[in-house]
Amino acid sequence: xxxxxxxxxxxxxPSLSVLMAKSAEDYKNLGNECYKQEDYDQAxxxxxxxxxxxxxxxxxxxxxxxxxxxxxxxxxxxxxCTKALDLEPNNVKVYLRAGKxxxxxxxxxxxxxxxNHALQIEPNNAQAHKELExxxxxxxxxxxxxxxxxxxxxxxxxxxxxxxxxDSYQIRLLQAEGLIGVKxxxxxxxxxxxxxxxxxxxxxxxxxRAKCMYYLGHMExxxxxxxxxxxxxxxxxxxxxxxxxxxxxxxxxxxxxELFKARRYNDAIARYQEVIQEDPxxxxxxxTMYANIAASQMGLGNYEDAERNCTRALDIDVNYDKALARRxxxxxxxxxxxxxxxxxxxxxxxxxxxxxIDSLIRDAQLELKKSQRKDYYKILGVxxxxxxxxxxxxxxxxxxxxxxxxxxxLPKQQF
Length: 415
What we know:
The protein is mainly alpha-helical. It has 23 helices and 2 strands. The chain has helices spanning 14-20, 24-36, 40-53, 58-70, 74-87, 92-104, 108-121, 126-150, 154-161, 169-181, 185-198, 203-215, 219-232, 239-261, 265-278, 283-299, 303-316, 321-333, 337-350, 357-371, 376-380, 388-402, 404-407; strands at residues 3-5, 8-10. It has a two-stranded antiparallel sheet. Helix 2 (24-36) runs antiparallel to helix 3 (40-53), helix 10 (169-181) packs antiparallel against helix 11 and helix 14 (239-261) packs antiparallel against helix 15. It is rod-shaped.
């Protein structure tokens, strides 16, 4: 796009500016032309040359601030506004720009001061009144959102965040917190990772990333991030609490595992239950704890409760192979053979390389087939491991029940 300047035509390029501009004011005019053409990067280059030629001119900083704002580079724009106001403390236009920068950066108190300064100079400035009202209403909305998050009303908080007219770090961090609350950890991770790339020292973003890793079950990654935060700020809000909780959870889990190995199943169950109680929202780890509780209950021969806890683990993680295999084993013991076959077949669909899956399916199908025959042990009400004496006793009892007349006085040796 060509623009006319001083009777000549030029493109917004630095090489031509060298030929055409002779003064700071020339560079400013070139910057203005590029700004009109929405070539903000080139406008910034020209305004920068104007500043280099005349560093004590407030207008050049103000103009560059406007170009930075058009590129949503509010921090750089605010720096230029500050320099311009140092040179011209009563420049209302620059106060308005500084207010808008602070607003988009989430610094509402500073934005309010900027607009109040503008109104002290021009009490009837309509733009200052309008933008000050927007800042105050946005602050009220943010306070409401923070209150919703504190009450764990995450869905409603996220709905309210959509109505906020800015996209500052503060807003995105609140959004990430809400997303963690509704268990959208991948989305939350993307948000805080983007913030961290732009601001490596943003500890709140790092903390929320640690929370995402924690809830995704990546405990080592979460602990490494928390250590980094606490090295930078030993008193960082939330990091100490989460770090202590993680250490406690890990201790309880390890104690449970050691008790399980020692076949102290009831004590192991108690430890695993403590892990779940420590943070009921910790789904990935808690699924493992339910499966571990089930394994302990199987060790105690309590297959009904073990089956229920395997189902709890699968409710959290439908692809949890060990829990599915464990539940099938419980169902074999509970003589729920068809359900056991279904579990094993489902397991094979999800993981065809699961150790021994074909053999497990065949064994379950065999048990199902056998269960469809007459089970005389079951008819007599004895276990398959019953002794000859127990079988005879049970037979005599059943005979007396179903044929009491002719059998009442028969001698015992006839049975």
